[in-house]
Batch of 2 targets.
Target 1
Amino acid sequence: MKYPEASTLPFNTSPLNGEFIYTHPGVTDPGDRGFWIIVQGDSLVLDVADGNYVLFEGKTPSWIDSRAESLFIGFWQGKPVRILEVGSGITIPDRYLAEPLLQTFFHERLPDNLLSLLGRSQQIISWQRKSALCPRCGGSTDMIHGTWGRNCRSCGYQHFPAIHPCTLVLVTRAAEVLLIRKAEWPPGYYSLPSGFCDFGESLEECAKREVEEETGIRISNLRYVGSQCWPFPGQLMAGFTAEFAEGEIVVDREELEEAAWFPRNALPPTFSQKSIAGWMMKTFA
Ligand SMILES: [Zn+2]
């Protein structure tokens, strides 16, 4: 089995296999040639070598404005790696890939080690963009040394990156599995009930509530099976299995197009097994 445990899924740290040494923010860039994670708006820009998508390596690519600011984040395969944001006015040469990471992920065009590096980079970029100003008073902020936290120059408020826990649940009833479908998904695709933790909730409470809210089904024997970092923009997906306890399906039409029981041996199309939802359906259904 390609992913024996959820921790081995892309975007988590395990697929990096020690190839990435993460430095704390504020560590000085050693200034050598190295790797470049290039970002333009919502798109990630990758180089192409022998038909594979790879990070830019060497000096800064010549088509990039030399004034673009880079952020050193550590060492990738022994060389410095930096995030470089380029402005919307720069034209990306046609021969490169430029698309959002989630799209690249679902097209399965990148190896898992790069997905984990780029997922982490995406979370860093997202945080850098939204943390420059204080959320309390709007003042300018400075980095709190050794962390990603920011300290407000005006009011002293400190804020830190938020990671949002979500749960997803694979519910079985004898030889059937409970699946849901959202209108925006590709035609025919189904996946697992899921949702964000609310104030005052444990993961288990969130899991039970989400299944009942979305489908009307109450569950028992909830068991944790693993988690996956989901950097779009900063979720932590916690997966559970559970058994049907009681109830008839009542679809939450605000959120879902459909919810239904499917036979385990005739499941509908779903998302990549590189996502914890797809992995759970493959592993436990
Ligand atoms: Zn402030």
Note: The chain has a mean pLDDT of 94.
Target 2
Amino acid sequence: MSAVARRTDQQAYEVELSPMRRRHLRSVLRIEALVYPRPWSMTLFLQEIARRRDRAYLVAKVDAEVVGYGGAMTVGSEAHITTIAVDPPYQGQKIGTRLMIGLIEASIERGGRTVSLEVRKSNTPAQRMYEKFGFHPVGIRKGYYIETGEDAIVMWADNVDTDTYAEILEARRAELR
Ligand SMILES: CC(C)(COP(=O)(O)OP(=O)(O)OC[C@H]1O[C@@H](n2cnc3c(N)ncnc32)[C@H](O)[C@@H]1OP(=O)(O)O)[C@@H](O)C(=O)NCCC(=O)NCCS
């Protein structure tokens, strides 16, 4: 049975988050090619996951199969979500939410107090998810995406190390139960 057929039957399944390793990259690159017009290369992922002190890269797995991944970098008190993606058959099932929780928690552990990201102006599903994590637009990068010339919206979440923000994370965790 294919992954698509298996996942459209609404059966409950366990999602496990773990650090991204070299052995996951074949699956990561497969998803990357499906969801991004300008996919990252194997070399770039290898460079990123090697930087364990200031980077946090996670994969989400179902039955040992990688179904999503994301990454964050932290410089001083500023964290940045570098990428996040979910395999299309698994989208809309809170796997992106799980990854965001993991990435923000990892950013806080590394000293992050603000978290930023860029998102395509047309990517409203992702923007809705980020808003649910307290991100708000702070600016536009004109023509940021070279392949299409599309603008990026820069979004920020402030004070992620506070009790107020902990409540946002708890509300998102509650949605998973
Ligand atoms: C963006 C992405 C990572 C979200 O992951 P996901 O697992 O599909 O998202 P979730 O199921 O956790 O949804 C979280 C919230 O996102 C928003 N959302 C997700 N899919 C949506 C859709 N198709 N339309 C509108 N809002 C949507 C909703 O607000 C949702 O909350 P809700 O379930 O209470 O309505 C995923 O859709 C993806 O990989 N997209 C392609 C790659 C991409 O765009 N990455 C982001 C680049 S900045």
Note: Residues 3-172 form a domain with the Aminopeptidase fold (CATH 3.40.630.30).
